């Protein structure tokens, strides 16, 4: 389905708190230098997970970053979302304490904080009485905890939504945000996705995938400002225009084929030829045989040069629902200073082993310098 | 305030309802139970409630997933996905749309949820306690992604050309999904939408509400002076939405028209309701639907039966509707609180209330709390000619959503 260029919103600011560091520039540097942020997990900090390494956000504890007020029971995924939103709001000049009921907030997740949820159940099962659980921990056990916390911290009273679509969450969240703008339900939208590292998440993911070797789990939050092009204030550059969204569910087991079908439909609806695509990138999905199915499909459609321009966000480990958001952030990081000789579009694809496939088409803004 | 105003677009109607609930499976059983003012309260059996002083809930009893789910291995689905998938099957059957038509169209599958597959996560914790984290089950682990509540529907119905995802905005998520689908169809970005909500009873959520002293010891008594809280429930409500033109062209039975909806966020407290936030949400919904407060014939309240919710909600309604306050009922008195399914099941209840001409009662009601000064249609349903019904949903995280549903009287008497 084409979103049409009419009313197409633009991305005009973004931020990332990631294993590369707490801000956009550390993320962009990490991507451009293709640095590996994998580190050994500190056994003093983390209970035992299936693997000894992960891609965690360095030095990140919600209390340390946000102070002690209101953070006693804040889980990690909420902290990541609150901090990302704080940075992005500062970047766009929304002052702390401003109550903004026209700013929408759309956040992607796989299933909230699995750690918080499982901890509460464990406390119920192992405590003296089954209701001897920490009341302050209750809000963190609901999947919209992070989006709700971000709203409270920053006074965001507009539409507030949490989107869960596995690894394909990124494009779906963007599309949800785009509809909020197109229908006038929000004037601007902060749209991102957040995942936390936790032993619980690592164990669930390890069992979900099967196999002897645990996958390296990544965490963080990438977040973008979406706004109608005409409302963009002077001085805020267009980084990309959201020109299309497409999605499919693979029914025949051929995920690469389904990615190809979706991407062709995406280009066709927007009237964009493959030659106009500067970077075509997957989000690091590999199927049960280790095959990078998105990359296989994209190489056939766009050739190697377009596929290899931007490193895969799996540099950050498995960031699940946030992977496509990080992938788009990686594209913007590289595109910022790259000459593009006429090809000014980017395609970001994503797929999940539940068969879901989604992709986003962006027309990139002018590079700087 | 943002203007969630009506923009030109296609009119959107409800043409199918799929129900899996503690009151029964399928729209007929559900409607009959709402009309009769029944509930199916019983001790929870899905998990071991030993040690809790009270343990009543509203479970789906006698659910046979194999009756509805044919193309997906049932063992691969968590409890909530079984509900959502079965309810989607029922909604398609109820709509009379041929599956081949859906397969050739662009569809949106949007399922609201509070807990996703938390029941499966609970089971993983039990395995971990017994045998360490290595003992967790891969089979259960593969069920846990919340997105599967929606993608399972695509696999069951063999729909590939779909936009598909779950909306995890807790207890108002059903209304979110309906609203999102309304926009997609109105804008011409989807031909059909299967939307609503699903959740399964689980230890995590029961314990959470219990610890917050929000679980009623016996029954759920919304707006009653002696209300004691919620009863946790479960199930799924899935609605088929399509454009009015599409429905008319195929001669569909139309339950009602989605007139509009509103979204607001309290940005106030993680779990407490906020009068200003929910009042603003109702205003936005009315404005989006182009409906004046005095035109609303019935409010289907969020009506959880907790002290805080009912008082706050009644006050917000009074503030906005004043002398024009219509009857305000809580279907949770019958269904319990089915979490992400709640506002979807209530929207289906609103739809049949319109088509069948009755108001579902608020049961278990003895004495109305003066702080909840609304006519909640105590205990016995009444016949009523309903033209516009408002369906409220609030949630943890301050995620508010209100949907307006109108009667469709045929092409000559357009509602909107």
How much β-strand is present in the residues of chain A?
Answer: 15-25%
Query: What fraction strand of chain B?
Result: 15-25%
Number of strands of chain A: 11
The ordered H/E elements of chain B are EEHEEHHEHHHEHEHEHEHEHEHHEEEE
What does this molecule look like?
The complex is a heterodimer of chains A (369) and B (416). Chain A has 10 helices and 11 strands. Chain A has 369 residues and is an alpha/beta fold. In chain A, the strands form 2 sheets. Chain A has a 9-stranded mixed sheet, sandwiched between helices. Chain A is globular. Residues 1-5 of chain A have low confidence and may be disordered. With 416 residues, chain B is of the alpha/beta class. Chain B is 33% helix and 19% strand. In chain B, the strands form 3 sheets. In chain B, strands 1, 2, 5, 6, 7, 8, 9, 10, 11, 14 and 15 form an 11-stranded mixed sheet that branches. In chain B, helix 2 packs across helix 6 and helix 10 (275-289) packs across helix 11 (307-321). Residues 1-6 of chain B have low confidence and may be disordered. Strand 5 of chain A pairs antiparallel with strand 6 (162-167) of chain B, so a sheet runs across the interface.
Keywords:
heterodimer, A: 369 residues, alpha/beta, 9-stranded mixed β-sheet, two-stranded antiparallel sheet, 10 helices, 11 strands, 20% strand, disordered N terminus, B: 416 residues, 11-stranded mixed β-sheet, two-stranded antiparallel ribbon, 13 helices, 15 strands
């Amino acid at each position: 389905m084409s979103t049409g260029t009419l009313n197409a919103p633009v991305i005009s600011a973004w931020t990332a708190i990631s294993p590369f560091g707490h801000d956009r520039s550390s993320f962009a540097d990490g991507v451009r230098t293709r640095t590996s942020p994998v580190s050994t997990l500190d056994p003093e900090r983390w209970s035992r997970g299936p693997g000894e390494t992960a891609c965690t956000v360095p030095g990140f504890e919600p209390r340390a970053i946000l102070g002690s007020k209101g953070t006693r029971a804040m889980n990690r995924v909420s902290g990541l979302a609150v901090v990302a939103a704080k940075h992005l709001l500062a970047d766009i000049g929304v002052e702390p304490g401003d109550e903004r009921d026209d700013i929408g907030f759309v956040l992607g997740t796989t299933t909230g904080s699995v750690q918080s949820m499982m901890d509460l159940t464990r406390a119920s099962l192992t405590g003296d009485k089954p209701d001897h659980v920490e009341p302050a921990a209750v809000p963190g056990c609901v999947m919209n905890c992070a989006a709700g916390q971000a709203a409270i911290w920053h006074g965001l009273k507009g539409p507030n939504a949490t989107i869960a679509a596995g690894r394909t969450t990124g494009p779906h969240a963007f599309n949800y945000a785009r509809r909020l703008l197109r229908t006038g339900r929000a004037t601007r939208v902060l749209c991102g996705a957040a995942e936390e590292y936790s032993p619980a998440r690592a164990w669930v993911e390890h069992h979900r995938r099967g196999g002897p070797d645990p996958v390296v789990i990544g965490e963080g939050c990438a977040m973008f400002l979406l706004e109608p092009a005409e409302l963009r204030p002077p001085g805020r550059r267009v980084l990309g225009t959201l020109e299309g969204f497409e999605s499919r569910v693979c029914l025949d087991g051929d995920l690469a084929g389904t990615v190809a079908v979706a991407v062709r439909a995406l280009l066709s609806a927007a009237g964009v030829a493959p030659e106009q695509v500067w970077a075509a990138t997957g989000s690091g999905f590999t199927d049960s045989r280790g095959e990078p199915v998105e990359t296989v499909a994209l190489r056939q459609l766009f050739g190697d040069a377009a596929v290899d321009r931007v490193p895969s966000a799996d540099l950050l480990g498995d960031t699940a629902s946030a992977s496509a958001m990080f992938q788009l952030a990686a594209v913007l990081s590289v595109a910022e200073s790259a000459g593009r000789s006429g090809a000014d579009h980017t395609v970001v694809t994503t797929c999940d082993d539940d068969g879901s496939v989604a992709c986003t088409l962006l027309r990139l803004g002018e590079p700087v310098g | 305030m943002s203007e969630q105003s009506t923009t030109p677009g296609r009119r959107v109607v409800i043409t199918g309802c799929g129900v899996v609930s503690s009151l029964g499976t399928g729209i007929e059983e559900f409607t009959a139970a709402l009309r009769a003012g029944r509930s199916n309260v019983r001790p929870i059996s899905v998990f071991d409630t030993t040690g809790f002083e009270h343990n009543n809930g509203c479970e789906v009893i006698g659910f046979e997933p194999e009756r509805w789910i044919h193309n997906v291995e049932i063992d691969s689905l968590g409890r909530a996905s079984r509900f959502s998938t079965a309810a989607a099957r029922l909604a398609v059957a109820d709509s009379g749309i041929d599956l081949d038509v859906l397969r050739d169209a662009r569809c949106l599958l949007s399922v609201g949820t509070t807990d996703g597959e938390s029941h499966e996560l609970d089971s993983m914790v039990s395995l971990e306690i017994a045998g360490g984290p290595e003992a967790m089950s891969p089979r259960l682990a593969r069920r846990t992604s919340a997105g599967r509540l929606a993608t399972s529907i695509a696999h069951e119905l063999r729909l590939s050309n779909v936009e598909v995802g779950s909306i995890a905005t807790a207890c108002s998520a059903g209304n979110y999904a309906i609203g999102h689908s309304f926009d997609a169809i109105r804008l011409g970005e989807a031909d059909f939408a299967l939307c609503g909500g699903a959740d399964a009873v689980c230890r995590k959520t029961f314990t959470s509400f219990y610890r917050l002293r929000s679980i009623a010891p016996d029954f759920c008594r919304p707006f009653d002076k002696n209300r004691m809280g919620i009863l946790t429930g479960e199930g799924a409500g899935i609605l088929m939405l399509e454009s009015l033109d599409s429905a008319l062209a195929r001669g569909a039975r139309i339950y009602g028209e989605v007139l509009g909806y509103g979204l607001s966020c309290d940005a106030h407290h993680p779990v407490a309701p906020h009068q200003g936030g929910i009042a603003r949400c109702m205003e936005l919904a009315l404005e989006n639907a182009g409906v004046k407060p005095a035109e609303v014939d019935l409010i289907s309240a969020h009506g959880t039966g907790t002290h805080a919710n009912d008082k706050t909600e009644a006050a917000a309604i009074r503030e906005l509707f004043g002398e024009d306050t219509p009857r305000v009922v809580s279907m949770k008195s019958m269904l319990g609180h089915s979490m992400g399914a709640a506002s979807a099941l209530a929207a289906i209840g609103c739809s049949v209330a319109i088509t069948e001409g009755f108001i579902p009662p608020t049961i278990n009601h003895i004495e109305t709390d003066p702080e909840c000064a609304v006519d909640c249609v105590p205990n016995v349903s009444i016949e009523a000619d309903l033209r516009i019904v408002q369906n409220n949903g609030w949630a943890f995280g301050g995620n508010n959503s209100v949907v307006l549903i109108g009667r469709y009287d045929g092409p000559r008497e357009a509602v909107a």
